[in-house]
Design goal:
The structure holds two protein chains of two kinds.
Chain A (H helix, E strand, L loop, with lengths): L1 H6 L3 H20 L6 H15 L5 E4 L3 E3 L7 E4 L10 H14 L4 E3 L7 H4 L4 H9 L3 H10 L5 E4 L3 E4 L10 H5 L12 H7 L1 E2 L5 E3 L6 E3 L1 H11 L3 E4 L8 E4 L4 E4 L13 E6 L5 E6 L19 H4 L1
Parallel strand pairs in A: 1-5, 2-3, 3-4, 6-10, 7-9, 10-12
Antiparallel strand pairs in A: 2-13, 5-6, 8-9, 11-12, 13-14
Chain B lengths: L19 E2 L7 H5 L2 H16 L13 H19 L14 H20 L8 H10 L9 E2 L1 H17 L7 H22 L3 E2 L14 H9 L13 H4 L7 H12 L4 H4 L1 H6 L5 H15 L4 H4 L3 E2 L13
Parallel strand pairs in B: 2-3
Antiparallel strand pairs in B: 1-4
Chain lengths: 308, 318
Amino acid sequence: METAAAVSETSAGLVENTVNDLDKQIQTLMNCEIISEAEVKSLCAKAKEILIQEGNVQVIDSPVTVGGQLPYTNYLFLGDFVDRGHYSVETFLLLLALKVRYPDRMMLIRGNHESRQITQVYGFYDECVRKYGSPTVWKCCTDVFDCLSLSAVIAGKVFCVHGGLSPSIQTLDEIRAIERKQEVPHDGAMCDLLWSDPEDAMGWGMSPRGAGYLFGSDVVKMFCENNGVDLICRAHQLVMEGYKWHFNETVLTVWSAPNYCYRCGNVAAILELDEDINKEFSIFEAAPQVGSENRGAPAKKPLPDYFL
Amino acid sequence: MEPPTIAPRPSWAPDDGPAAKWIKGPMDLAAWKRSLAHRDYLDFLHRVNDAVAGKKTSQWVPQSPGVQKVMSMLEVIKGYTDKHPPEAEMQQRYGNKAYRKWYAELTENAKELINDVLEEVENDGAAAMLEPYLLDSFGNQTRIDYGSGHEAAFIILLLCFEKIGLFTPEDLPAVGLMIFGEYLRACRHLQRLYKMEPAGSHGVYSLDDYQFVPFLWGSSQLIGSNFDPNNYPQPEKVQDHDMESLFLEAITYINDTKTGPFYEHSNQLWNISAVPNWDKINSGLFKMYEAEVLLKFPVVQHFLFCKYFQLTPVPDEN
């Protein structure tokens, strides 16, 4: 209703309203609180408009912060924004709000969890239904997932993707040719980019995950040479130290979830690239888990489908 | 140009080959759901569940030679870790690569181990057929991870052992309490020693990062007990009771290995502690297992099928 009223004002008034709304939403989400379903619909619609303009291989200039906090450089997030945690909804909507607010500074690429099928197994769907009472927000968000780009190249030299390489892809142009606006397929190039892992054997191997492939240093060398890049920067695998180099520093895994599953004791990392693509890592630990003082023990709510 | 037509896959048929995967996509879940394997698996889970009802883990149950053989096998497998201690941790992503050497040892010995277990029973060379289940019971060699799919592989192995005639109905309490209990301790030993990742954990939506069935059978053990479910999120209330039930033993492991308040790291278990009695917890966990584990493609895609665990549809009752 507010949007309809704003349309009748001057365009300057409309823009100002939108930015104020966005800033308020960003503040709300930063406080780990949800925005309304109506706001979600509007935010998702705006985000989709921006995202569908982007190519499958986004071009980003350095300086860039990969993985991680706010806009003095460009920011690139490597996917897996949802599932497993308590606050997938707030996290993803915050990233979308930042994207809409700073569209040229914030880049989001798709992870294997940005998928209807996966989010119905690993928690995002359940969280949406619990926090909003219906699957509507989940549906909006998964429609946005379909618009997310698949990869990025920073300063022409650092190729960024969530998982890894594909035997179906030799060049960046082949990635550009993919029809990406769909649910993540079970196999093929688009699936592989989001599911593959580097592994010590040469060539291509079957992935124990059941999707994507394992790829060796020889595959990486050829891809880098064919495409004029120096480094493949990716995520997708837990790393104790937050980041890990593979294959003589031609592949880098960046992992930004500390103390995974509240048990793994790992730190998280963010990669920072300056104008000359010099690399620096920021490491951070899990937020302190306070006991009853902060949020307090929640009410016990056994799932009614199973326990009532 | 016409797109190539994909010939429909021939239906699964049992043969004498080693157990192998068959489920390729979510469309295959329907075939799994109406299969003999699915029926037999749930039936086995329920029968062991009933056999351990009200029984403490520490209490004596009859142990036939068949049960003893499986217990010995587990001890041997656990013992391989002595030969493959964790390696110095530089350059490792997360899990310790010595696990892969432990796993290679298991691979080398798996057929012989199963042959020993089945020595006294007519088995038509079942060791080759069942070997893949044993190899899938303790995690993944490449990823150095462990999850509910690996747990299921071990249970399917036990189910196959029963089909071959290694176990009788009198053995089921020992299968649930002794064999499965020892199996869990072996897995925890591996998880801690080699720093194994949770495989496909549902995070805060999981019951647990690694296991499900100890909570299932363990809740059956506690039916009729004095232990108030409301208390199990408190470590001090569980400590003195954890040898009464696989459920409580599993809770202790969680408390020993996860950080922060219970309601944060184990939110589902926190919620379930409000269910008024163990009977309702047990039946609820069965529903949850069927929906969250047995009907989820990421788990079931790795299941293995063979002559003793068949994807053949359950025949109509007509």
